[in-house]
Amino acid sequence: MKKSILVYSIISVLSLAACSRDESAPSPQLSCNSEQLHNQIQQTLQTGIDNNARQFAQKDSRQFVDAEKVIGASHELSIALSEGKLDKDANGNPICNSELKITIPANIWQQTQVNAPLLFGKSDFIAQLNQQLQGNEVTQRDGVFTKAVKYAPVASNTNAASAANAASNFDQAGIQTFATVLGNALLPFGIKDTVVIAGHTYNRADAITLITNPNAKVSPIDQPSPSAQMASAILNGHIPAIGNDNQTDSNNNADKISENNSKPVEITASQLQLARDNNRNANSVINTHWRNLDDTVRKTLQQEEQKWIARKNSQCQEKATKADTPAHAEFLRLECDTQMTNERIKYLSGYALH
C-alpha cells in the first residue's frame, strides 16, 4: 500500500513539473515584416500587368498598343510595402495590416496622360481611372497608387520553407485586381509611334491632334509626295491646282500637262509601293470594321457587301485597262480600290457599335 502511494506521489510531482515547464514556455514571436512577402506581391503584380497588356494588344482591333512598351514601363514602377502592424481579425486570429504603394515614374505618367485620348477619346482619363479605383479600395494621386493589404504574420522560429508558404498567405485576388487596374492605367503609354486611322498612317502626336480635334488639318505620313500627287491626278484625268500668279504661267503649265498626257506614264517603284501600302492599310481597316459589326447587322449587310465588292472589282479593273504599262495598270487599280474602300469604311462606320 505504501509503495503505491509513493508511486502516485512521484507521478504527480513529475506531472506538475511538466505542466510548470509548459506554462512557462514563451509563445513564438510573430513578425509582420517579410522580404519574401514583398517579393511575392511584386511578382503577382508584375505577372498581372504583363498578362493584361498582352491580352489587350491581342484583342485591340486598331492595334494601337505595343504590349512590350507597357511591360517595359511596368518594370520601372516603384513598389513599397510599409512596415506591417500586428493586429487581430474578427475571429481573434493574428493578422498584419500594411499599405502597398506603387509609384509610376513622372515621365511615364506624363506620357500616359498625353497619349490617353487615342484610347479613351475626349473623356477625362484621370476621372475614369479614379472611378475604377473606387470599387477596388485603391487611391491614386499624381501617379501614386495605394492599397491596404492584410496578410498572415510569420513566427520568428519558422524555417525557410514554412516562411515562404506563409508569405503567400495574402489577398492574392485583391492584388491581381490591383494589377489589372495598374495595367489599364499604363496602356496609353504603350501607344505606338505610328498608328493607322481610317486607312492612313499618322505619327502619334498628329493622331492625338486628330482625335481631340477632328477638324484639325493634319497630314498622314503616308500622304503621297507632290510628284506622286501630280501623277495620280494626271492618271485620273484631273489637272492639279496651279498657282495663279499670272494667266500666262497657268496656260504654260496646262500645256505641259497636256503634253505629258500624250506620253506613256511612268510609275516609279516608290509610287507603286506607296499605292500598295495604302491599299493594304485600307483593306485592313475595312476588315476590322466588318468583324466588329453586330452579328445581326453583318447578316443584313451581307448581300449588299458582296455586290459592293463585285462593283469595286469591276470598276477598278476597267480603270486598269487604260494603262500604258503593267506597273501603270497596277497603280490605277490600287488607287481605285483604295479610294472606294475608304468610302466604304465611312459608310460602315455608321453601323458600328459605340
TrEMBL record:
Cross-referenced PROSITE patterns, in alphabetical order?
A: PROKAR_LIPOPROTEIN
Q: Which keywords describe this protein according to UniProt?
A: Lipoprotein
Q: In its keyword annotation, does this UniProt entry include Lipoprotein?
A: yes
Q: Which residues form a coiled coil?
A: none
Highest taxon of the source? Bacteria
Which segments show compositional bias classed as Polar residues?
Answer: 244-263
InterPro entries tied to this protein: LprI-like_N
Region (Disordered), start-end ranges: 239-263
The Lysozyme inhibitor LprI-like N-terminal domain is annotated at 262-348
Does Lipoprotein count among this protein's keywords?
yes
Q: What is this protein called?
A: Putative lipoprotein
The scientific name of the source species is Snodgrassella communis
